[in-house]
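Predict the holo structure. Ligand: JEB.
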Amino acid sequence: MRIDVVTIFPDYLKVLDLSLIGRAADRGRLDLHVHDLRDHAHDRHRTVDDTPLGGGAGMVMKPDVWGEALDDVLAVDAPTGGRRVLIIPTPSGEVFTQRTAEDLAGADSLVFACGRYEGIDARVPDHYASRGVEVRELSIGDYVLNGGEVAAVVMIEAIARLLPGVLGNPESLLEESHSAAGLLEYPVHTRPTRWRDLEIDPVLLSGDHTRIARTRRDQAIARTVGRRPDMIARMDAADLDREDRAALATMGWAVPAGAPHPVPVRIRPATVHDAEALADLAARTFPDACGHVIDPEFIAQHIATNLVPGLFRTWVDDDRVDLVVAERLAPQSASQASSGTETAQTPIVPDLVGYAAVLREEPDAAGEPPTGIDPRPACVQARPGQVVGELSKVYVDSTMRGSGLAPALMSVVTQRAIDHGVSLLWLGTHITNKRAQKAYRRAGFRQVGTRTYNVGGQDAHDVVMIRRTGEGL
Ligand code: JEB
């Protein structure tokens, strides 16, 4: 590839001789020529600028001087039949990205026109574009430099390292192009394993490459959520596996069923203001759990008498109940949250898409258990003094199936229950609901028996599962 740079400061481009780009030039992959714009000035002061027409601050670079310089560079050594691009760095250009670099690496020759002052007379790009030259006005980012030289150095380095034979190991190029689309790269480490009291995740030393890949993927997701929520909002849902979704959901992003991208959600403790929305959500989700086997009339009965706002108000007020909700947020909130510019914009009616509750089996002052707790089945065996909680239970709106919210809600609510002393969790779920049983198994529950459960006056058969939280999974 041939690269020409026109500038009033040719020395700025000398850095390119130092780096791998310089070695590429030595090896003949890259043919770099730097030209002094002032060689094309007309007066003995070698003037290249003039005052802006229409008034305003600063000076503008003269089109006649640029015209002569570019005519020369574009005419000399024109590659026959090759693709040639005139690149004009400018803060008002299209943003130069890895995509742009990949595109431009496919050209045969590039000409960079580096301006100074307030920039180059706007007719210069128009003129060459109208003459059939491929012209790109490009910016390297949203900040202001004093001229185009540093921007040209940046673009040349990004483009040249993509040329065959310029970079040492093309493997890293491959890895980059994969990750460039979706996520930031995972953090990297080398020896010593412990440095100034800082350790690295032991998984990285385990030699278990499946777990290492998973850990790194989670780290990349966490980084991207924290630093570049805009990238998460653009992620292709098809590239997210179950574990990605579970990780994202704990970090405030869920993928709705059939949606193209993740959307911002928040998992938080319920408040009294959620009671109505919770009752609505419970009424929507309860039939999903057992509707295929239980008479609709009985289900309606159960919803009308039990899953009412009053129940959720009672739960919010009862400190033996850990009740968490998943709330869908307005689309812009995630980036606002991370940039710290979030305004207190809590909707009147929260858009709840999931909830989970753990009811601790402790009598209150009057000797009463929490409202809604089920009698502990005989197959759930507690040790003396052990605090037992019923996971009652994890519901996710059908629009959020497979979004990762269920495991995220489960991990948040069980952590809160553990913090409140629970070391044995149990739950009942309908025998036929294999999907739920699988999800609970994944969360560390195992079946210990069955129970009969009354739904609106009709008996239903449940699987009983437990998880001992004191001993880990
Ligand atoms: C590029 C340049 C100037 C308004 C204010 C200052 C020529 N990302 C970028 N930031 N700044 C530039 C850039 C790129 N690419 C840049 C060329 C010139 C800034 N200035 C100074 C121009 N207009 C002059």
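The first strand starts at residue 2 and ends at 7. The chain has a mean pLDDT of 92.
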